[in-house]
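Example record

The entry below shows one chain as it appears in the dataset: sequence first, then structure tokens.
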Amino acid sequence: MKNKYLVTAALPYANGYLHLGHIAGAYLPADIYVRFKRLNNEDIIFICGSDEHGTAIEISAMKEKVTPKEIIDRFHFANKEAFEKIGIAFDIYSRTSNEIHHKTSQDFFLNLYDKGILLQKTEKQLYSEKDKRFLADRFVEGTCPICGYEEARGDQCESCGSNLSPLELKNPKSKISGDTPVIKESKNFYFPLEKFQPKLEAWLKTKTNWKSNVKNYCEGWFKTGLKDRAITRDLDWGVKVPLKDYDGKVIYVWFEAPIGYISATKELFIERNIPDKWKEYWFGKDVSMIHFIGKDNIIFHALVFPAMLMAHGEFILPENVPANEFLNLEGGKLSKSKGHGILVKDIVKDFNPDVVRYTLASNLPENKDADFSWDDFQTKNNNELAAILGNFINRTTVFAKTKFDNKIPERNTNSDEIFDIIKNQSKVVAECMDNYRFRDAVNETMNALRAANKYFNDSEPWKVIKEDKEKCANIINNCLQICYSAAVMISPILPYTSEKILKVLNADKNNFSWDKIGEINLLSGTELGDNEILFPQLEIKKEEPKEEVKIPEEDMIDIDYFRKIKLRTAKVIECEAVPKSKKLLKLQLQVGERKKQIVAGIAEHYKPEDMVGKTIVIVDNLKKTKLMGIESEGMLLAAKKDGKLALVLPEKEIPDDGDVS
């Protein structure tokens, strides 16, 4: 029977801020799972850290004219803080730029090298004479040979989605200098992934409880056949290849990044002053290792990393890889590279982190892509968290405060059917948690709270207290005990709210565990803490996207046509209403040395006396016309929107007859 858990969440790449898609994909499910296991007193560690090598970071540094370390420092610490604020509680959040990671990765590499497992291949690569370096795939840009897109990357065309190699690009250019590269040969090490396919297939057949999306993905790779993968590349930024005569080469980031789980575990136990204990979690046969990832990482965690661990020997293999699909925003795919998404650091600044966690958890993309919308976010807060959970906690504690002197009233019976309902529901939630069905776990948790509200309503304590205060005391004691059970049951999903409920109940976390759900945990006579509204009503006002105003081609004029229009400033010297008209005013204007009369439809917005003395802008060369039988020699300029009209006036006082341009 396995009794230890090693939980990892994919190392986020340190070249951008975390968005909600990252949280829903890997980190929130992992955090919920770990918190649940800890409530069951399981021996579990939760490992993560920043992935800090690779070409994308070098490119970002070049664009900003800073060092790669400045890039990774910025995003490592920003993302670490974002994780903390949304309540993702790692045992350690390390980074792959740490010395312990470089040493661990190099030792892993040397283990495979010394065993003769690694292959050496000489291959053609693009080389920039100007940059004096081989160009890794993302340092090259050119025309896609498939669709003709002119800004395709050396590894992929973002237009048609085709996987490419730099040598396939037409008209390749260095993204560093713009230089046209030449072809040169370079020697690199390869990991023989093809050789490990039979072992991987046999191992995967034993994983009958894996999610179908993960197994199907792996089987698709098996059908096309696994290929050997380059393990080194010609770069400056990264973990150096620990061999002589290999200057200018680093270990490929795809290879060394998952080793970050091992190096972070070492670092954790060094910090705890038990440096050798990491081996218990990586070599022990009683350990379940679980990788929480997004579906774009399945290849590395379900196939490549296990093959690496098989090749090395000693290490345990993953027990499960519960990968999630993608989270979309209002129907569009979240993308860090394209800047489409809601950043974690921003949303936790404006909203309760637990509402964010709940909205994501209740709609996790466990088996198919899911969607985040602001309407749903508001509904989850107002109609579920506030109306079900918040309502039950508030009505119970307020009743106790007002009717029982702010204390937990005495109980006169040790059992009640409601406790059996809550306890049985906790077993259903636990089964969902153990099987990585977190959406179902959220729903079943809310069902327990619905049952609690039904108990309160059906018991009618507001009526009972008038006839039998002792019976009412028992009802409210029951409800307060259920509040404690609720604090336990919601804590994996809503950790901050759980803490708030405990403060309201004036309860501590001693013996705070899953098996306490549905039990009598609070002492009668305990004074309650200050109450608070857990989930105030939200009203999110969304800015409607502004439609682009397009002028029909036939309505466009050229500059020569516009020059014919003579705009002048003019001073209003007299103004009166036009008889029998609600809209028209007759204005006498001074335009330099000339006087002019115009008729304007502004009477519903300006009184005649308001106009006298104003300097306005007019079209001076408009042909004379008659309105209501009155001659008009021009037109004033005004703007109108939503029924309101305003004159176009000069910003500063200028002489009459000034040209307007």
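Notes for this example: The chain has a mean pLDDT of 91. The longest strand covers residues 567-577.
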